[in-house]
User: What shape does this take?
Amino acid sequence: MLETYTGPLLPPTLLDDLTGVYTQVFSAPPWHEDAAAAQAFRQRLTTDASSDGFRAVVARTGTRVDGFATGRLTHTPLPAERAYPRVTSQLGEIRTSELLDGAFEVDELAVMPTARGRGLGRRLLHLITQTAPQRRAWLLTARHAGETVAFYRGMGWHEVDPLPQAVNDIVVFLAPWHSQATG
Assistant: This one.
């Protein structure tokens, strides 16, 4: 069963469930995030739920959460937290604004290991982006996460070329239907 949530308030039990999935998925390789990162995710999710265009899509089997995707609308300049300064550095301020401002950012996509291999990640990614304004959606991931990068490429997402000599440790992807995606 797939459920969609919008803000501004998410039920506490949903926050618990999503934080639990986040912890299991992102504490494993290649992410190796710790308990503090999971708590930061929970706080970010609480805050993001009141952001413009926030959406969460949750996949359940009975009461068990098998995976989820979250996202919201992007406004530039990007915040000076998390990986956003690297996005701006990698793309430049003008391209960041042109490509991402007003677009839907897929912030998190997580599927439990026991639920993988059945197309759930694909369905979550499709559902979370289907209402993107002017069909413009984007996401970023760590370059060292090879399977994750391959997944997005396999889904037809397009990597935005970084500026010459930019630090290139993240990959910024545009949805296949983004008006400025090239491939």
The chain has a mean pLDDT of 95. DSSP finds six helices and seven strands in the chain. The CA atoms of residues 97 and 125 lie 23 Å apart. The radius of gyration is 16 Å.
